[in-house]
Amino acid sequence: MDYKAIAQQSAEQVLAYNQDLSGWKVVKTSKKVTVSSKASKLFQGNLYRIEGVIPELPAHLSDFLYKSEHRVSWDKSLKAFNMIHKIDSDTLICHTITQSFAMGSISPRDFIDLVHIKHQDGNMDIISTRSVEFPGYPPTSHYIRGYNHPTGYVCSPLKENPAYSKLVVFVQTEMKGKLLASVIEKSMPSNLVSFFLNVKDGLKIHKAPIPALRSHHSMHSAVHKKK
Fold it and tell me: Domain of life, per the record (predicted)?
């Protein structure tokens, strides 16, 4: 499996989602976070778009979202998040286990995801995620194995204040199992707002300097119970 090619394709797909402003329907607004959705073209479910402002530099924000060291400590939707293979400095394969949600009606799921960060001009970073198969990590009886179609984050400087970031998140997760679509559609928007707020809270706790590699990039740009 050509993981690097898949990673590039996923990043391009997330960028295309970010540029496509047509057909979105706002399904929830709360605490300055907006969640929109439209039918996914890849499975029988929704593609979600979550956007808002994060009071942090884009380079800090993308490093924070890309690195897994503290993920479970701030992301309350997860019970485990582990890197299981490093392909290169910008591309990882991770195993994720989610918490149950929707008052327990959606049981924990696990995912094997290819995660990739792509640096764009203008200090924009794209962090893409897509589920893949990986030797040694087949589905087990402990969790339903979910599937993430191209999903990810777009971090860019806020035009009004470049020290702040505009964060746009795209989610199109196939939960698998025997869930009714209505259960997912009812619970997902609130969960996505909660995730966004968790990012803000996590950044306050885990402040970290920009690594040397990222500093150079910035300078260059300037010139789930089973059911």
Answer: Eukaryota
Residue 77, amino acid: S
DSSP string, 7-45: HHHHHHHHHHHHH--SS-EEEEEETTEEEEEEE-SSSSS
pTM, 2 dp: 0.88
Count CB-CB contacts under 10 A for residue 64.
21
CATH of the domain at 39: 3.30.530.20
Cβ(81)–Cβ(94) below 8 Å: yes
Provide the domain count of the chain: 1
Range of the domain at 184: 3-222
Task: Show the beta-strand stretches assigned E in the chain.
Answer: 25-30, 33-39, 46-54, 78-88, 91-98, 109-120, 124-131, 144-145, 147-148, 151-158, 161-171, 173-174
What pLDDT digit, counting tens, does each position of 81-126 carry? 999 999 999 999 999 999 988 777 789 999 999 999 999 999 999 9
